[in-house]
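Incident log, entry 3
Record: Vascular endothelial growth factor receptor 3 (410 residues)
Problem: checksum mismatch between cached and fresh output.
Input:
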Amino acid sequence: MLVVNGTPKAQFSEIPSVLPPDKNFTITLFILAFDLNKSEPDVSCYLESNCSGIPICKLESISSESYKLEKDIGPPNRFKVVLFFRLSSSTLLLCRVNNGIENGDAGTYLTVSNQLASFMVMIRSENALVNLTTPGTSEIINVTEGDNINIACFALDYFYYYVSFNYSEKIAPRLLSSSNVSLEGTEIRVKSPFPFFIACYVEGRPKPKITWLKDGENIDEIIENNDEVSLSDDNQILDFKSSIKKYEGKYKCKVENRVGHIQPFANVIIEGNVGKLNKECTIEEQAELLPYDNSFEVERANITLGKQLGAGAFGRVLLAQVKGLNGKESPTRVALKMCKFEYDKTHLRALIMELKIMIHLGKHLNIVNLLGAHTSNIDKGELWILVEYCKYGNLLKFIQRGKAQFINQM
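Fresh output:
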């Protein structure tokens, strides 16, 4: 295994140039930790204070209750911090990230003002051509690429607003190498029911607009009222919490700005194809070809764990109560099978194969039948299989207890 240790990288999300005073808003800090030895990095954030007439400002630590560290989509060492603010004056925001090896810093100045209407026009379109003029006062400034421009807007005799910017070349959208789509098309193979994501990282100037299509249709129809699929990172990531057959298809990432457009794509293949089963082999030998039936999925909130009933080589069985099983309002007693706490990938894979085989076999009077499964946290090693609870124990012990009454008719 290749382990990369280095300075963590931290970068703030896009922040408005002017923030309103005494209003709630959030800022996201994206972190790449570059260390797999720590479960998560340590993050400390500060705001400048007591700067009025003092050349050296004081840094005040932000309470941990004002921000939340969570796992971000993508590599295992990628995190994000959502900071919650309500400011009354402009200030400097500083954040320090420690991964157990080195520190990484990020800083930005937050301009807080309610003086918007008198001197400022707010434009919310990213790709439109905008011409800002006041009748009788329009003036054209001729600039070339690379020019530095300073603009000052004065109100009355004492208030002014000063802007500096650099005129830059317009750039057509370009696909970044960290994407798993391409202009020629890529193939993404996913084993059911594991989660997966499609990444379309791009750059351009003006900032490109991203629209996702599946088999030529807008992705909004799939995302609407569906907790399993979501967009994130400025629509650059399409995230799936599980892989089922209906998510298979061609996904196109339509990227455009005023300069140009590109349409990289990927073909998603969900591996779990009953049609490819070889009748000469056992089901156990080719269980990976069996699909996961999402109709067996049970939400974690509907499962209440009870005492342990038993344990085996790689798993353990608990008594559990499940609400809403098979349309019943009252809780159903089930036996819940899971990996032991010290699970590894081999044990998890064995449990996945067992689940797929039970789905394939279906219900039968003479076997312990599958009732449901919880797979939402399978990426964390958590897979729960719900089967019928046998209140009289296993068959072997039942026969042994009735040994004295056994009648041999052979």
